[in-house]
């Protein structure tokens, strides 16, 4: 049996209370007919097949090839910034190493200091160094409001060994995982969960489709989504990221790494990764937001440990759907928007990756849910088709019929959907 170097990614952070925001509760449920209509409207989008698209990608841009504004720090500077890497300022610990809160001089105003997060590479040898280099190469040349900003790095080799550190903007509200935890004093309000889904989708869309090269995240999960002072969500931890397939290729073959519960089935089975692998992980994340549960939780009863398995029975009957919603929300949510978000998750979780939407299409679906949920006194209309407005009516009708046929075939997705299996780790 093949061993997969999966890791659980559990951090030792103490969860911190999140700001509470009142969200108007609604008792109106989507009827089964409304849900079918909504689902068919989503499914009429032109779902393109990333495995057959000719992706024009350049070689991965390194710092030597493109201009970067990253600062180069010394170990002594970062020791001073973090009180000699004191545990009193440690804010996280993950697979890469420990993360410390620090203070560094503001380049724009040297008389002031700014808060930063300093990530120190653990003693993991060559593999850890490769992840460090990947992180610098990715965040050194990309910039987006929904990606954590890398400010600089440190690379020193001395008698004490290899010193590899990264310096990021500080994200005071920690990770989404922290706030979904049952240990969190207050739950994330529903409106904020929708906003987080929207922000995360924007970040992935940028990585997949909005540059002259494509980046596959490969480790998308709630602990890698951080929240800034204004509670904006930003993707972090790019150590496992990979450049998308070159022109003429359908996928990238890699070692199977990631976190159990998030990895796409075809990636686990073949080691072939595409942007659609991230789309699957995003679908799992949407169910995290809806339920407040982890993808895999050994502390729950056996029949509730695997999130995607647990939600199945509640998706066949809309009258039971409310039973999967995070009880800590105390019914302060829009049941219709939750049902629609579940439909988006289902589209991401189609077993055949060719039939999953692109992240730009997922983002558009979520945008429409957010728009509908924020309208006051207006009826919540089903999401419009994402098919091109320039398509002829005949083409639209044909596309709708084809997707409707596909939908009827996959209407039992919750029965036949890939069931996450326990994977032996090594």
Automatic annotation (TrEMBL):
ATP binds at residue 119. Residues 85-370 form the Protein kinase domain. PROSITE patterns: PROTEIN_KINASE_ATP, PROTEIN_KINASE_DOM. It holds the Pfam family PK_Tyr_Ser-Thr. It comes from Morella rubra (Chinese bayberry). Residues 10-19 have a biased composition (Basic and acidic residues). This is non-specific serine/threonine protein kinase. It is found in: Cell membrane. Keywords: ATP-binding, Cell membrane, Kinase, Membrane, Nucleotide-binding, Phosphoprotein, Plant defense, Transferase. It catalyses: L-seryl-[protein] + ATP = O-phospho-L-seryl-[protein] + ADP + H(+); L-threonyl-[protein] + ATP = O-phospho-L-threonyl-[protein] + ADP + H(+). Interacts with FLS2. The keyword Signal does not apply. One of its GO terms (biological process) is pattern recognition receptor signaling pathway.
């Amino acid at each position: 049996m093949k061993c997969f170097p999966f890791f659980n990614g559990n951090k030792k952070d103490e969860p911190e209370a999140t700001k509470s925001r009142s969200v108007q509760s609604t008792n109106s449920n989507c009827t089964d007919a409304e849900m079918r209509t909504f689902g068919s409207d989503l499914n009429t989008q032109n779902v393109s097949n990333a495995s057959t698209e000719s992706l024009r990608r350049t070689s991965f841009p390194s710092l030597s090839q493109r201009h970067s504004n990253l600062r180069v720090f010394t170990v002594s500077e970062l020791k001073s910034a973090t009180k000699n890497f004191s545990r009193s300022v440690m804010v996280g610990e993950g697979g890469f190493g420990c993360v410390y809160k620090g203070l560094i001089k503001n380049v724009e105003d040297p008389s002031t200091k700014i808060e930063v997060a300093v990530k120190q590479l653990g003693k993991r040898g060559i593999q850890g160094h490769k992840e460090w280099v990947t992180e610098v190469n990715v965040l050194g040349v990309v910039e987006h409001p929904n990606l954590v900003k890398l400010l600089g790095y440190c690379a020193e080799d001395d008698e004490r060994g290899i010193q590899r550190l990264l310096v990021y903007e500080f994200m005071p509200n920690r990770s989404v995982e922290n706030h979904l935890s049952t240990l969190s004093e207050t739950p994330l309000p529903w409106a904020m969960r929708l906003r987080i889904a929207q922000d995360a989708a924007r970040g992935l869309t940028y990585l997949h489709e909005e540059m002259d090269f494509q980046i596959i995240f490969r480790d998308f999960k709630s602990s890698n989504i951080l929240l800034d002072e204004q509670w904006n969500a930003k993707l972090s931890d790019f150590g496992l990221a990979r450049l998308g397939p070159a022109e003429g290729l359908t996928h990238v073959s890699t070692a199977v790494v990631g976190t159990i519960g998030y990895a796409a089935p075809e990636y686990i089975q073949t080691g072939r990764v595409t942007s659609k692998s991230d789309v699957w992980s995003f679908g799992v994340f949407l169910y995290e937001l809806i339920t407040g549960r982890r993808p895999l939780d050994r502390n729950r009863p056996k029949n509730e440990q695997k999130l995607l398995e647990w939600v199945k029975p509640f998706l066949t009957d809309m009258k039971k759907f409310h039973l999967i919603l995070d009880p800590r929300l105390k019914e302060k949510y829009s049941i219709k928007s939750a049902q629609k978000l579940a439909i988006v998750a289902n589209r991401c979780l189609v077993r055949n990756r060719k039939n999953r939407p692109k992240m730009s299409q997922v983002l558009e679906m979520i945008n429409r849910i957010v728009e509908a949920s924020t309208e006051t006194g207006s009826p919540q209309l089903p999401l419009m088709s994402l098919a091109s407005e320039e398509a002829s009516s005949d083409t639209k009708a044909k596309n709708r019929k084809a997707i409707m046929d596909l939908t009827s075939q996959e209407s039992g997705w919750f029965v036949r959907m890939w069931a996450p299996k326990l994977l032996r780790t090594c």
